[in-house]
Amino acid sequence: MLKMHKKAQIFSTDLIISAAIFMILISFVFFTFSRYQTKIDDSIRIQDMNLKALQITELLVKSSGEPVNWEENVSKLNIAGLVSSDRRLLESKITEFIELEYNTTKEKLKIMPYEFYFALKEINGGVAKINGEEAEKGIKPNLTSKNVLTIKRMVLYGQNEKIIEFTIWE
Amino acid sequence: MLLQNIKKAQVSIELLSVVGFLFLVFLIIFGIIYEKRIDVIKTEDYIKERTECIKLSNLITEAFLHEEGIIIKNKINFNASINPNINLISINDKTEIFCTLFISNVSNVSLVKGDIKIENKDRFVDVKNA
């Protein structure tokens, strides 16, 4: 006698399709999870850069530094400040600051692990000149730089208004 | 005697395997979601503590930048340690939660959560619990 057995099949087309949809959904959920973690990490790093850029700029344009006459003996520099009083630039301080070695400046300003670019600019956007030299220092960010943050502050240099531009980047 | 042909519903091995497999998959998913949830809570705590650290760092710089004698009163929600030797503020004595201290002439102090007083004394920033 011939008997026809119909057995339940696990690997039916329906099961394969549903399993595939399920796997796609799960992958999407995990991708979203990992994306959020990356976003949070980025946000924390940008916050750190923001803190550094803002505080360093404030110290540069609002304090005379520590010690007050650090420009007379740069080896004693503790905190870099470029003004004689609130936002009034002192030429000797800015000249010494620009002449400081890049890595020493990074260390003194506590910029690590980021890079920086500093410039004293005219109102029209051009780099100002002090004693015939362009008043800028550091490394300009390029197209491959990941995060770039620039802080600008109006200052007085002599009787002229200028802009201090401080960029921190990675 | 009446013979009855009783046909019982049968749970096949295949069905049991599928149910078992699905149960295992869901168990793994719930495990991973639980782990992620813990990660999110940890990140939230980290952000809260770091925000507090940044606030303290900002207040110290602010006190330094203002005229001598200025007193800033504020409140911190976590314990904090100020270490001017390495220019760092750490929160709850955790090595992973820290922020930069831009001023070196500041008190080397451990603060307990609560009210704090920050004072600029002759270009030295004195920080203590109020």
Provide a descriptive summary of the structure in words.
The complex is a heterodimer of chains A (170) and B (130). With 170 residues, chain A is an alpha+beta fold. Chain A has one domain. In chain A, 39% of the residues lie in helices and 25% in strands. Chain A is built from 3 helices and 10 strands, in the order αββββααββββββ. Chain A has a 4-stranded antiparallel beta sheet with strand order 8-5-10-9, with helices on one face. In chain A, strands 1-2 form a two-stranded antiparallel ribbon. In chain A, a hairpin with a 2-residue loop joins strand 6 and strand 7. The mean pLDDT of chain A is 89. With 130 residues, chain B is of the alpha+beta class. Chain B is rod-shaped, with a radius of gyration of 30 Å. Chain B has one domain. In chain B, the strands form 2 sheets. A 4-stranded antiparallel beta sheet of chain B has the order 4-3-2-5, with helices on one face. Chain B has a 3-stranded antiparallel beta sheet with strand order 1-6-7, covered by helices on one side.
Query: What is the terminal separation of chain A in angstroms?
Result: 81 Å
| Largest interface pair | A-B, 26 and 27 residues
Strand content of chain A: 25-35%
Instruction: Specify the biggest β-sheet of chain A.
Output: 4 strands, antiparallel
**If you average the pLDDT of chain B, what whole number results?**
88
Q: What is the count of DSSP helices of chain B, taking H or I runs of 4+ residues? A: 1
Number of domains of chain B: 1
Structural class of chain B: alpha+beta
